[in-house]
Specification:
about 90% helix; about 50 residues
Length: about 50
């Protein structure tokens, strides 16, 4: 049972890492733009927090 769960988790992780590699190598400009957008939105959210 545990071996099945671990095998499924490992397969899922490998597929996810392969997807990330494929996206970042085929569309680096889009990945950079999305990262910049997420960073800007994060900064905006942090700036609006009232301490």
């Amino acid at each position: 049972m545990l071996a099945t769960v671990l095998s499924a988790a490992q397969t899922g992780i490998q597929r996810h890492l392969h997807w990330i590699y494929r996206i970042t190598t085929k569309r680096p400009a889009a990945v950079c733009a999305i990262c910049c957008l997420v960073f800007a939105l994060s900064c905006l959210a942090i700036a609006r927090i009232e301490f």
